[in-house]
Amino acid sequence: MITNDVLRSIRYMLDLSDNKVVELVKQADPDFALDKTEVQAFLKKDEDEGYAECSDAVLARFLDGLVYHYRGRDESLPPRPFEKRVSNNLVLKKLRVAFELKDVDMHQAFADAGFPVSKPELSALFRQPDHKNYRACGDQLLRNFLKGLTLRVRGRS
Questions:
Q1: Mean pLDDT (whole number) for 9-18
Q2: In this structure, are residues 56 and 3 in contact, taking their beta carbons and an 8 Å threshold?
Q3: Considering 48, 56, 78, 114, which has the largest number of Cβ atoms within 10 A of its Cβ?
Q4: Hey, is 89 helix, strand or coil?
């Protein structure tokens, strides 16, 4: 899925301001340069003037910032390196950690979006890529998870 779409979806789900997005990125990596105007450019539609593509580096730091915001940072551990490539599976994994979602919660989010997923399908998404039962998360699957999670967080309207 396009990183801009992921950022847009999560921002809408949590009703985050541009400044809050910058704050979350800074929480993950205080040395990373990002300002409000860049965030606004990431949130524009592809065809709009001033659109900018959100890099994997920005999305990785934003997702880590969400985890730190909701779960806290363990100061006893050394900082984890940031992912160079953000896959759909990684987005699922980071959201699962940030919101402390169990398998039941994940299944419910998919079901709420009208896209039920079986237990083996779900567990395959969280396996290591070199595992024989690993399954890459497709754009449609991630889109439906974000939709279901949004319904859960924001409520049905």
A1: 92
A2: yes
A3: 56
A4: helix
Please compute the mean of the pLDDT values over residues 30-34 and round it to a whole number: 89
CA distance 111 to 69: 27
- Tokens describing residue 118: 């079986």
Residue 33 contacts residue 74 (beta carbons within 8 Å) = no
Of 71, 96, 122, the one marking the end of a domain is 71
Number of domains in the chain: 2
User: Same domain, yes or no, for 7 and 67?
Assistant: yes
Q: How far is CA 12 from the centre of its chain?
A: 12
Polymer length of the chain: 157
Q: Taking Cα atoms as reference points, which of 33, 50, 135, 145 lies closest to residue 92?
A: 145
Q: How far, in Å, CA of 88 to CA of 102, rounded?
A: 18
pLDDT digits (tens, 9 = 90+) for 39-96: 999 998 888 898 999 999 999 999 999 999 998 887 777 777 888 899 999 999 999 9
Q: Residue 76: inside a domain, yes or no?
A: no
- Does residue 56 form part of some domain? yes
Same domain flag for 93 and 39: no
Confidence (pTM): 0.89
